[in-house]
Amino acid sequence: MRLARLRPSRFELKIAAALVLAALVPLGAALWLARTLTAENLALALNPRVVARLEATPALYGDLFQARKQLYAEQAREVLRRLPGDPARLRAYLAAAVARTPRLRRAAVLDASGAVLAEAEATGPNPDGEWRPAPARVAVPDPERLRLPPGATLECTFAVEARFFADLSEARDLGEVYHSADALRADIQRSYVRAFAALLGAWALAAGLAGALLARRTTRRLSELLRAVSDLARGDLSVQVDPGRAHDEVASLARAFNRMVREVRESRDRLVYLEKISGWQEVARRLAHEIKNPLTPIQLAFQQLEAAYAASDARTPKFTRLLADAGDIVREEVGTLQRLVQEFSDFAKLPEVRTEPAELGAFVEEFVRTSPQLAAEAELLVARGGDCPVALDRALMRRVLTNLVRNAVEASRPERARVHLGVARTRDRAVLTVADEGPGIPEEVRVRIFDPYFTTRHEGTGLGLAIVKKIVLQHGGEIAAGAHPGGGASFAIALPLAGPPPAPPAST
Questions:
Q1: How far apart are CA 227 and CA 16, in angstroms?
Q2: Sign of the CA dihedral 464, 494, 402, 342?
Q3: Which helix (H) or strand (E) holds 379?
Q4: What is the pLDDT of residue 180?
Q5: Burial of 33 by CB count in 10 Å (0-12 exposed, 13-18 middle, 19+ buried)?
Q6: Which residue did the predictor score with more confidence, 439 or 85?
Q7: What confidence tens digit (pLDDT) does each residue in 444-488 have?
Q8: Residue 501 per-residue DSSP state
Q9: SS3 assignment for 310-340
């Protein structure tokens, strides 16, 4: 296993090879230039008849001029490689390239006919004094990607010192006096070339090793991401990838993967909960039907019994009291069963969500104003934190708030409840918080508090919070139970932000 980790991958080898190749190309050109310069310098140094005119000087100037032309062409290609794809930024980019590139006096993008599409020129004087233009023109390889016309070219005009041409002209006037070089000069030349070649080889090897190390860091993170993808394919929705402290493309990919897994997990949980609620709704519908059917006969039979006894001549005080007590018990229990049937029926017949644009803070304030019965039972405190445009079903969301506020009132008895209704905004969510100052919810209960038929109160059915969560999920939101900082329970509802709600009609 350790040897497998140490063995370089194909990706690492490709990066190392690319860096070595990128290093060898300019280094090979430099080796060739060094060989040429060595030969010329030795010829000048070992010629005993060198006077004022040197036959090799024009050739040396020619080589230098060719090297400079190659340098200018490479600089022009460097400007071309970074050419932006936005035509609006082309002029600014060319001006920046002229400012940062030595001896570049003018840069222009031309179409196929030679017309100027964008250009920039240096405004200051040339630091080397008098100069002559040396243009270098390169074709744009993919003009469509850069939104340029076909046949577009980049023309860069560089400054060549005027004295360069003056020296070249003077050198051409000099005569060339040479004698045949001896074996010593050839040996010296070969030794210089070999030393320079060894130096270039060491440099290329260092570039390859640096590329392998860089590739190893990248492939290690990519391997972690690949393992996480495999775990996700096997159904593990808890997998996460550590992006580290980097800010490159691999780190961005890791963060995007974590975000995708989190969204898939939340969607899965939402779907599972809604399917579970749908099953419980079917159970509630059947229970309501099965319980409701015998209630009416029970009531009628007992009413007939009371009527028959009232008309009988064999009444006794003891049996009268017994029958009255039994009647109170039957009516109370039947009433309890009827309320239970009604709650089951309401739970089984939750309407579909029909959303409309609304501002969440205004909706909460309207809820407080139009709920005098709740305001009489509790002190409702509203805190808003910015506009929160959402899409919601007003009737169903009022039911959510009513249920949460009533739970807060029940939790605060016998004291008068203080209920805090907070509206805040995050980057992409509107958050509605309903908190009380009661005893709070134990942590072990919070994980089950939204399950149907789970309740901590003797008189509760455990359907209220299940209805609340289903309505919130149908709005595309989330709800979580927690603790209020001042003591008590807190319910946070996060709804996705929508466009701004329509403005109210102007009063006339």
A1: 24
A2: negative
A3: strand 378-384
A4: 47
A5: middle
A6: 439
A7: 888 778 777 677 665 656 677 888 888 888 888 888 888 888 778
A8: P
A9: HCCCCCCHHHHHHHHHHHHHHHHHHHHHHHH
- Who contacts 290 (Cβ-Cβ below 8 Å, separation ≥6)? none
Closest CA to 348 of 300, 287, 397, 419: 287
- Looking at 311-433, list the stretches that DSSP marks H as alpha helix, in order from N- to C-terminal side: 317-348, 360-369, 372-377, 394-412
pLDDT tens digits, one per residue of 220-278: 777 777 787 887 777 777 778 777 777 777 778 878 878 887 777 767 766 766 666 66
Polymer length in residues for the chain: 508
For residue 495, report the phi and psi dihedrals to the nearest 5 degrees: -115, 145
Show contacts of 372-377: CB within 8 Å, 24+ apart.
374/402, 374/405, 374/406, 374/409, 377/409, 377/416, 377/417
Instruction: Read off the amino acid at residue 4.
Output: A
Q: How far is residue 52's CA from residue 50's CA, in Å, rounded to a whole number?
A: 7
The 3-state secondary structure of 69-116 reads: HHHHHHHHHHHHHCCCCCHHHHHHHHHHHHHHCCCEEEEEEECCCCCE
Please state at what angle helix 57-81 crosses helix 10-46, rounded to 10 degrees. 160
pTM confidence score:
0.45
Q: What is the pLDDT of residue 231?
A: 77
Residues β-bridged to residue 493: 432, 479
Q: How far apart are alpha carbons 432 and 495 in whole angstroms? A: 8
Q: What's the CA dihedral at 137, 141, 143, 148 to 10 degrees?
A: -10
Whether the predicted pLDDT of 110 surpasses 80: yes
Q: In this predicted model, what pLDDT tens digit does every residue of 392-433 receive, in sequence order?
A: 999 889 989 988 998 888 887 777 888 999 999 988 889 999
